[in-house]
Amino acid sequence: MLDAIVVGAGPAGAVAALTMARAGARVLIVDRATFPRDKLCGDTLNPGAVRLLADLGIGGNVLAGRPRLRGMRVTGPTTSVSCRYTPPTAGIAMRRRDFDMVLLEAAIRAGARFEPGITVRRLLPDRSGCIRGVVFASRRAGAEVRMPALIVIGADGRRSVAARQAGLHTPARIRRWAFGAYAVGVADMTDLGEMHVRPGSYCGLAPIGDGMVNVCVVTTPPPGTRDALDVVRRTVSREDELAARFAGARFEGPTTVLGPLAAEVRAVGVPGLLLAGDACGFVDPMTGDGIHLAMQGARLAAVEALRAIDLGTFAEAVTRLARARRRRLGSKIRFNRVVRGLVQVPALIGLASLGAKIAPGLIDRAVVYAGDVG
């Protein structure tokens, strides 16, 4: 029998599998996608994520030569504030398809096995109700397969099959849609990431190298179309500054849409199943903290999974993980929820914009905190 099945091969799943495999566990990672694969993302790692990669032993040559992001520029309807990190602190720009492969390959080198093209159908409980594996369908096998394991880690995103099968997903109050594109020739780009916040939407810009800019628009409510390029074009055209900067730009490469971004959970797992990443709750892209929180949460889940296997106490693992997440991630998750609510209310955007004019240091501190610079 396997020690663990990790459902989802994104950053959370790969970090969980890496952590467990390095500890000697027999780990299988499954994902319905074939890697590398494109994924809508801001294509940036904040300073905290860069530091975590170093802790995992994945920095060095992997990040060498990648564009550095030295801070953030945040604009509101009536103001603009630029915040630079204290050198040598910096974020990194890296395409998500490349980043996911780096983490997945590290997990495989550590001893985890990866099977792509696997769709998890349901969880596999034992007589006591404790999860003891999954039932999946393989494109190669063409039939359902029962795969037992001592514990399952659900890291399969905001529409997590594992979380839904366990009855852990709950209705979300705020639902957002994200639209991504790539552009070259955007004027006046610097080594800062940018976030242009307006009532009901925001637009992020990130220089990712060779003149290419990641452009991501997040809206509430949905804009009435699923054409990502159309949404991005209309968003930048509504703002005089952005319209001028995109006047000579051209869009290249894939365009993507993702939504609704709305997953919430009532618990971080059930006996035999622990959740990580977006499967454990939606992180608003505005903070730029999603990947960092996903990797941190995955490490915590892996540690508790290893302890559960060692002690044979699978129900207690859920309580321990919830406690560890509150202690290590609780303040950041609360910060994320405040930001999520801020963008939802036009009056609050106006107040935040006014506050930035009066006390720009508040925005500086928020950028530093969101980037996990400390």
Q: Give the CATH class of the largest domain.
A: Alpha Beta
CATH superfamily of the largest domain: FAD/NAD(P)-binding domain
Tell me the strand percentage band. Answer: 25-35%
Radius of gyration using CA atoms only: 21 Å
What name does the CATH topology of the largest domain carry?
Answer: FAD/NAD(P)-binding domain
Query: How many helical elements?
Result: 10
Structure classification? alpha+beta
> What's the overall average pLDDT, rounded?
88
Number of strands: 20
CATH architecture of the largest domain: 3-Layer(bba) Sandwich
Which word captures the global form? Answer: globular
Helix content: 25-40%
Distance between the termini: 42 Å
Structurally, the number of domains stands at: 2
Please provide the ordered H/E string of secondary-structure elements: EHEEHEEEEHEEEEHEEEEEHHEEEEHHHH
Poorly predicted runs: none
* Largest sheet features: 8 strands, mixed
